[in-house]
Amino acid sequence: MTIMTRPEDAPLAFQAAWNRHDMEALRTLFHDDATFVNRFGRYVRGIDAIVEMHEPIHATVYSDSTLDNALIDVIPIGADAAVVHFWSRLAAGPAHPAGPHAVDTLILAVLTRQAGAWRIKALENVTLTNPRTGETVLRDGV
């Protein structure tokens, strides 16, 4: 079980679960009733739905992918709630139909603490794109 003791642990905990393609580790990061919006705008609610959304892609197109996450900021909402923003660079491998490539996203996660552990209550993932062309872009300086 992955235990996040601070909201700022979320980017690296999410990265570690993804890079191991460990759906049980991913499960432990979320509250049972959490919501997730993937980078394509698909919305799911509940930990089972979050895992079910990720299982098939980790078995196929993202089976050799990795994430490299970097914390942007933590905004406390109170003693037991925070908003966390972080960059996420997905490096897709040869298993992806488009072949090896990178995608940058910006993740917003709302975390709450229950029984001493922080977990994700809501997460939204947005792909960086050029607003004029719709082309995927990588953030500068990385």
UniProtKB/TrEMBL annotation:
Do you know which InterPro entries this protein is assigned to? DUF4440, NTF2-like_dom_sf, Steroid_delta5-4_isomerase
Q: Which domain of life is it from?
A: Bacteria
Question: Coiled-coil segments, which residues?
Answer: none
DUF4440 domain residues are: 13-120
Which NCBIfam families would you find in this protein's record? SgcJ/EcaC family oxidoreductase
> Under which name does UniProt file this protein?
SgcJ/EcaC family oxidoreductase
Can you name the source organism? Massilia cellulosiltytica
